[in-house]
Amino acid sequence: MILAEKTINVKQQNLVLTNQRALFWQEAETLVLSDLHLGKTAHLRKNGIALPTEIIDNDLKRLSGLIFHFQPKKMIVVGDFVHAGKNSEFKLFAKWKSQFSNLKIILIKGNHDRISKEKLIDIGVTEVYEIYEEEHFIFSHEKVESQEKFVISGHLHPGIRMKTPVGRFVKFPCYIVSDFLLILPAFSSFTGLDTNNHPKNSSYYFFTKDEIYTI
């Protein structure tokens, strides 16, 4: 895994954006991500769509790499931790979490997180909220309005569309940052990209497997 980083300062706090679809909040020793969509590929396989099991395996390996690198005390998942009902990928996640028994996982529920709190705790989630506030930040799956605190959200699966020198268009996942809001990319590598529904007057931090760039 090649890890590229770019640090931004928000509310006098250092947020390290990475090209691995998650950020690290330095002062709180916290890894922050959104839209893992655990169980999505297993759900689609169950419904007759042939997908490789390596998708979730690779996502969890990437998550392990971030944890080994940053050594966070906790992880905040800003919604859509799961995708559908309980399936084989839940056991896979529970086994993965056993490697990091001291890692606290805070989940802010998203529109896909419809299973019970008890089942979430069974596989390693520590606390579950509708909206979570800490220090100068509000964590919410979908963006909310706040005049006092900076909002960190997910849900959108943001991406940008760029024209290459040969006239073709390519899409890249990105972080969107404004004066009051940061929208996280989807952590899952198996998601589409929304290149249209973006807040105005924002900066973009888009990334490849090797680097992270600013426009």
Summarize the topology.
Layout: E1 5-10, E2 13-18, E3 23-25, E4 30-33, H1 40-46, H2 54-70, E5 74-77, H3 88-97, E6 104-108, H4 117-122, E7 127-129, E8 132-134, E9 137-139, E10 150-153, E11 159-163, E12 169-177, E13 181-183, E14 203-207, E15 212-214
Parallel strand pairs: 4-5, 5-6, 6-7, 9-10, 10-13
Antiparallel strand pairs: 1-2, 2-3, 3-4, 8-9, 11-12, 12-13, 12-14, 14-15
Tell me what you see in this structure:
- Its EC number is 3.1.-.-.
- Pfam families: Metallophos.
- Keywords: Endonuclease, Hydrolase, Ligase, Nuclease.
- This is Ligase-associated DNA damage response endonuclease PdeM.
- It is built from 4 helices and 15 strands.
- The strands form 2 sheets. Strands 8, 9, 10, 11, 12, 13, 14 and 15 form an 8-stranded mixed sheet that branches. It has a 7-stranded mixed sheet with strand order 1-2-3-4-5-6-7.
- The chain is of the alpha/beta class.
- It is globular, with a radius of gyration of 17 Å.
- It is 19% helix and 31% strand.
- The two termini are 24 Å apart.
Task: Give a quick set of tags describing it.
alpha/beta, 4 helices, 8-stranded mixed sheet, 215 residues, 19% helix, single chain, 7-stranded mixed sheet
What is the CA–CA distance across the termini? Answer: 24 Å
Kindly state the percentage of residues in helix. 10-25%
Q: Radius of gyration in whole Å, from Cα?
A: 17 Å
**What does the average pLDDT come to?**
91
Q: Can you count the helices?
A: 4
The strand count comes to 15
CA-based shape? globular
Strand content: 25-35%
Q: What's the order of the H and E elements?
A: EEEEHHEHEHEEEEEEEEE
Spans of at least 5 consecutive residues with low confidence: none
The secondary structure category is alpha/beta
**Main beta-sheet strand count, sense and barrel state:** 8 strands, mixed
GO molecular function: endonuclease activity; hydrolase activity; ligase activity
Pfam family, one: Metallophos
EC number: 3.1.-.-
Protein name: Ligase-associated DNA damage response endonuclease PdeM
